[in-house]
Amino acid sequence: MNQSSASNPFREGLNRTRAVDPCVFVLFGANGDLAHRKILPAIAHLAHHGLLPSSFSILGVGLEDLTDDAFRDQLRPALEDAENSDTRVIDALLEGIFFQKFGEPKDLAERLSSIDKARGTRGNRTFYLSTPPSAFSSIVTYLGGVRNSPEGKTGTHRIILEKPFGRTLDSARALNKELLTVFQEEEIYRIDHFLGKETVQNLQVLRFANSIFEPLWNRRYVDHVQITVSESLGVEDRAGSYYEESGALRDMIQNHLLQLLCLVAMEPPAGFDAESMRDERRKVLRSIRPPSHDEVPLMTARGQYGAGSIGGEKVVGYPDEKGVKPGSTTETFAAWRVKVENWRWAGVPFFLRTGKRLPRKLTEIAVRFRGIPYHLFDDAGSQEDMNANVLALRIQPDEGVSLRFGSKVPGFDVRIRPVKMDFQYGSSFGEELPEAYERLLLDALLNDPTLFIRGDVAEDAWKLVMPILEVWENTKPEFPNYEAGSLGPASANELMGRDGREWRRL
Amino acid sequence: MAHAIKQKQIGSSQDVSPSEIEPALNALWNTQHEHSAEGGATPVRACGLTIIAIASGTESGLAEELAHATELVPARTILAQLNATVPQGIAAQVSGFCQTAAGGEEHVCHEQVLLQASRDHGDFLAPVVSPLIVPDLPAVLLLKEPSLLSSSVIQRFLPLVDVIIADSHHEGAKKAFPVVAPLLDLESPALRDMAFERLTPWRDAVADAWDRAQSDGLVFSDILLTCHEDDVEGALLMGWIRSRLPSDLHPTLEVKTGIKERGLKELRITAKGKGTSWVFSVSRVGHHLVEQESEDGTRAVTIPWPIPDDLDTLAYVLSDPEPDRIYEAALRATQT
C-alpha cells in the first residue's frame, strides 16, 4: 500500500508527498513507437527526478527471442533521450530491466515472482498495454491467467491502456466487460493523454482557484465555446495500421475533445479527489443529448484532405497516402455542434473541430462571451470589435491563457479596438512543462485515477458519437473535399454559419 | 542540474541616477520594441516577482546566481551592494537580459537594477528600492549573509517584502541562527533558508526509510548524523527530524562531529522490531547521495541520487516564495 503524507510524518512539505511503491512495470509492446517515444523517456524523467523507488523494475513482454541484456541495449537510447540525462541514473534503471517472451501465463507469473525476490518488488505489478487495440483482448485474457496463478495473488495490480477504448459502443462495452473479469475498475487506468497536459490541468485552477471567472461561466454570459485540435501533419505512416479504420471522429472527438468539453462545462466538484472529479465530468456527458439521425447532417461536418501545400511544401492528399484504400471514406476532419442541456449551459453551443493538414498545429479552448446589451459607444468601432471578449486557453503550442477585450484607441475621439491580456507559461515560468506521460505514469503508479477515463465515461462518450458514425457510414461523402493547408471543408463553415457564428482563425 | 547561462544582455548597462531608474527601464523596452519592428525578435517583458538581493560588498557571484535563477523564474532583480566606493552616495545601473522562452521562439526579457550604496548611504537604499517593486507580485529579499539582518539597513527592507530567503550555510549555525530565529515571531515577512532547501534529498531519504521500516513492521530506534560541528544543514536536519517524529516515538538522536568540511557526511538510521533490525545509510559522494540499505546484513542496494545544485535550488525556492511551516518548525526545534 503506498504511503501518504498522513501516515508518513516525514513526507509533508516534500515534492514527493507520496511514494511510488516498488513494482514491476510490465510493458507489452516495449519495442513499439509509443514505448520508445513517450513511455520510456517518461520513466527516465521520473527516475531523474528521484520519483521512482530504487527497486522499480521493467519487464518487457514481446514475441521476440531476446535476452535481458539485448533488451536493455535496445531500450538504452530511449532512456537516454531525456535532456541532461545522467548515466548513473540510467545505469541504475537498466539494472532493473528484463525481458520475457510472450508464452504461457504461468511463465510470466514465475518470472515476475523471481523479480520480486531479486528486487523486492513485493508482488506489485503495473501492466501497460502499449500495443494495437486489436491485441487488448488477448492480452487481458492472458493476464487473467497470470493473476490466477499462485504467484499472481499478492501485491497491488493495475493495468494501463491507451485509447481507443473500442471502436464502437458495443466493442467498448465488450472491452470493459472483459477487463472487469480480470481487474477491478479501480485497477484500470484508461489514458487520455490530453488530460495530463499542464495547461489542461490549468483549466481547473483557472476556474476553481480564481473567483472572477466562475460567475461568468454559464449561459448568461457565454455565447459559445470552440474547442479546436488542429494538426498540420497528415496521417504519415498510420493510415494502413490504424487511421483508415478510425477517422477523426473516433481518433480525436470521441475521446480528447469530449474530455476537454467536460473540463470546460463541469460543475465545481465536491472535492479534488478522483471520484468527485470523474463524477462531474461524467455528468457533463450525460447532459449532452446525442444527435438524432436527422440532426447529424445539420450538427456535424466532415472532410478529407486533398493535395495542397503546408509550410510552402507540396503535400499529397489523403487518397494518395500510404495504406489508404481506393475510394476511402475515412474523414480526416470532423466538426460537431454539441448541445449541453443543463441549467448552466442550455442554449450555449459547444463547437468541436479537429482535422489533419490544416494550416497549423493548435489545440485551443476559446470561450466567447456574449456581446454587450447596449452599444454606448455608437460608431466607436465595429460591432464585432465591441463584442470582443474571448478567453482563450492555448493547450499547445505557446501554452497559456489570453483574454481579449475592447480598449480605447489613444486619441481625441473614442475608437475601440480589441486588445489581448496574455499569460504565457514560457514568460512566467521558465521551467519546461512536464510531459503529459510523465504526470500520467506517476499518477497511475501512485494509484491516483483522477486524470484517467473511467469505464462508464468511456461508454457514455461512445453513446454520443454512435448516431454520427451510423449516419456517416451510411452516407457516401464527396471526398476529398478540402485542400491541405486550408481551413477545412466548406461544410464546417456552413455548420457555424447556420448559427450566425464563425470559426476562430487558425 | 545547472546549465550554461542562456541569457543575453540587451544593449549595454546604463548608468542613471536613482530617480531615473524607472524611465530608464521603460526606455530599455521601447528600444527593444523598435528593434523588433526592424525584424528582430519580439521581446516579452516578463516578471513573476521582484527579487531584492543584498550583498555587503561586491558580489559578482551573486549576480551570476541571479542570472541562472531568473532563466527559470523571470523576475525584476534589484541587486544592492553595500559599502561600495561610489562618489555620489547611491549609483544605479539598469540592464536587461533576454532568453528564448521555454518551448517557444519569442524572447523573454527581464530587468536587472544594480544599486551601489556607499557606507553612509545604506539607509537610503530602501526608499530607492520601494517604488521599483512590481505591484501585485511577490517581493523577495535574498540575503546570502543572514547576519546582515541585524543591521538597520536591512531592517528597513522588511516591511517591503513578502519573503526573506537567507542562506545560513556560510556563516554557520552559531552566527546565523540567533539572527534568523527571531524572525519566526513576525507575521511578515516569511522566512526561508537555502540551507534547509538543500536538505530535500536527505529528507526524501528519511521519508523513504520510514516507509520501508513501516512496511516491515519496524520503527526507528537510532539516528546518527555525521557532520561538521557548526553545520547549519546538520542542525536543521536534526531539528526537522525531531519536529516530525510522532510524540510516542523516541529514537536515540546523535550527532557525530569532528568533520573538517562544512556539510553533511552521513545519515544512518537503524530500525528495529519483531526481533530483527535493519540499517539504512545515506552518504554524500560528490554530487550524489548514495544509499546503502542492508536488510539483516544480507543485501545491499546502492543507488545514486543527484543532489540539486545551489542554482537549481535557488530557482526552486524563487518559483514558490511562500512561508514554509516545516522549515519554521525545524528551526524552532534547533533552538530547544
| Helix-strand makeup class of chain B | alpha/beta
Indicate the structural class of chain A: alpha/beta
Q: Quick check: average pLDDT of chain B?
A: 82
Contiguous low-pLDDT stretches of chain B (5 residues minimum) are none
Tell me the number of helical segments of chain A per DSSP (H or I, 4 or more residues long): 15
The number of E-state strands of chain B comes to 15
Main pleated-sheet profile of chain A: 8 strands, mixed
Protein described:
The complex is a heterodimer of chains A (506) and B (336). Chain A is an alpha/beta fold. Chain A has helices spanning 33-48, 68-79, 87-95, 105-119, 136-148, 169-182, 198-208, 238-265, 274-287, 296-299, 383-386, 425-428, 436-445, 455-473, 490-497, and strands at residues 24-28, 57-62, 97-101, 125-129, 157-162, 188-191, 222-230, 300-303, 305-306, 308-310, 313-315, 333-339, 349-355, 362-369, 390-396, 400-408, 416-424, 452-453, 482-483. Chain A is 36% helix and 20% strand. Chain A has an eight-stranded mixed beta sheet with strand order 8-12-13-7-14-15-16-17, with helices on both faces. In chain A, strands 3-2-1-4-5-6-18 form a seven-stranded mixed beta sheet, sandwiched between helices. In chain A, strands 9-19 form a two-stranded parallel ribbon. In chain A, helix 6 links the parallel strand 5 (157-162) and strand 6 (188-191). In chain A, helix 4 crosses helix 5 (136-148). The longest helix of chain A is centred in the middle third of the chain and has 28 residues, at 238-265. In chain B, strands 1, 2, 3, 4, 5, 6, 7, 8 and 9 form a nine-stranded mixed beta sheet that branches. Chain B has a six-stranded mixed beta sheet with strand order 11-10-12-13-14-15, with helices on one face. The mean pLDDT of chain B is 82. At the A-B interface, helix 3 and helix 12 of A face helix 2, helix 7, strand 15 and helix 10 of B.
